[in-house]
Design a protein that fits this description.
The protein is an alpha/beta fold and 373 residues long. The chain has 2 domains: 37-281, 3-Layer(aba) Sandwich (Aspartate Aminotransferase, domain 2), CATH 3.40.640; 284-370, Aspartate Aminotransferase, domain 1. The chain is built from 13 helices and 12 strands. The protein starts with a helix and ends with a helix. It binds pyridoxal-5'-phosphate (PLP). The site of pyridoxal-5'-phosphate (PLP) has 12 residues, from helix 5.
């Protein structure tokens, strides 16, 4: 990895020690160019060849769908574009059949907890798993599951302390009870070398504005092949219409997760996300994961050496490292004044969350460590 060359693509890093990728990632020049390409294309109405501008947008979305599927190692027909992580989660919850007395299970720290208006309205019980030693144990999850459990929601990587979930073991346990597994992977994709066929999870929702480095307003949902036809789209439009009307577009009703898209998507985001994925692929997701874990380990050891109480358990398994801090907000503000960006959170007794990415260096981490009390 030519880190000097890479850092030149992120002008912000000249000024900032940016260690807050779990909040929002840093945008490289190439992603900005993707945004600009889209604007220029529309501004000049200049799609290449005979295509209309809509045909060009749709073609780019098709190309991106393939790249997104490759990136998370699933099939192209298993990817639907959405608007945000929560949008994907709601598509799943709203598309399932619920009966009074069913239950859903999720850890207490889920970012978008699975207690929704749909589950509440249908009399579905929400069973919340408590953290033990700052992580969620499979044994504790298992105790809450029974044959009325329809859906288990977990984050692949916790936004609180970066702990990762064993998705394979969880899924095996869930499927034994006939429950589906819904994963929030917004803190994982782009940071780790992920493969969502391997653990056999049912659904994965991802927003790209953190470790994928952009955009906002476009996100994606993985629906495993066997769930595509079982899940009913919770919203309908020209793209997945069920009304046999006058619409010239061919409706997508079965066989592809694209059926969960109902209208015109955030095409500018499509242009930006394609650039982001190309960028990360050029470096290689295995290399990115290796570097992220090395930097997180270096930071973890540095914090332990300073005597900090660690919120992140054991050896870090993602780029996110958190430690306890009584006054997190003033400390985060002081660091920001020094152009060092991390997150201070008052939740859970107060903690600092530091999240590097491949473009960070040990020097960035040393600068942070030397400026925290
Ligand atoms: C784990 C996780 N999921 C989801 C989100 C954001 O949700 P959405 O994409 O729906 O805005 C965040 C943002 O911090 C997050 O950390």
């Amino acid at each position: 990895m030519d880190i000097k060359k890479i850092r030149a693509d992120f002008p912000l890093l000249k000024e900032w020690v940016y260690l807050d990728n779990a909040f929002v990632g840093v945008m490289p020049r190439q992603v900005k160019e993707g945004y600009e390409e889209y604007v220029d294309l529309w501004y000049n109405f200049s799609p290449p060849g005979e295509k209309t501008i809509l045909q060009e947008w749709l073609l780019r979305a098709t190309r991106l769908r393939e790249k997104v599927a490759d990136f998370v190692k699933v099939n192209t027909n298993e990817i639907a574009f959405t608007t945000c992580t929560g949008s994907g989660l709601n598509i799943v919850v709203n598309g399932m059949d619920w009966e009074k007395g069913d239950n859903v299970v999720f850890p207490e720290w889920e970012h978008n907890a699975l207690h929704t208006n749909t589950t509440a309205r249908n009399g579905v019980e929400a069973r919340v798993i408590k953290a033990r030693d700052y992580r969620f144990e499979l044994a504790d999850i298992e105790k809450q599951i029974d044959d009325r459990t329809k859906l288990i929601q977990v984050s692949h990587v916790s936004f609180v302390n970066g702990d990762t979930m064993d998705l394979k073991a969880l899924t095996e346990m869930a499927h034994e009870h006939g429950a589906k597994v819904l994963v929030d992977a917004t803190q994982a994709v782009g940071a780790l070398d992920v493969d969502y066929h391997k653990p056999g999870v049912d659904f994965v929702s991802v927003a790209p504005y953190k470790y994928l480095m952009g955009p906002t307003g476009l996100a994606f949902l993985y629906v495993s092949e066997e769930n595509i036809d079982k899940l009913i789209p919770d919203r309908t439009g020209w793209k997945n219409q069920i009304f046999e009307g006058d619409n010239p577009e061919e409706s997508i009703s079965e066989g592809s997760a694209e059926k969960f898209e109902y209208g015109t998507i955030h095409f500018q985001g499509v242009f930006a996300l394609e650039k982001a994925i190309d960028y990360l692929n050029a470096i290689g997701t295995k290399n990115i994961e290796r570097r992220n874990l090395e930097l997180a380990g270096y930071l973890y050891d540095g914090l332990v050496a300073k005597g900090k109480g660690m919120y992140t358990p054991d050896t870090p398994s993602s780029p996110i490292v958190s430690y306890f801090e009584d006054d997190p907000l003033p400390l985060a503000a002081k660091l920001k004044d020094m152009k060092i960006k991390v997150t201070g959170r008052e939740a859970h007794g107060g903690h600092m969350r530091i999240s590097s990415h491949f473009y960070n260096t040990k020097d960035d981490i040393d600068k942070l460590l030397s400026n925290i009390p």
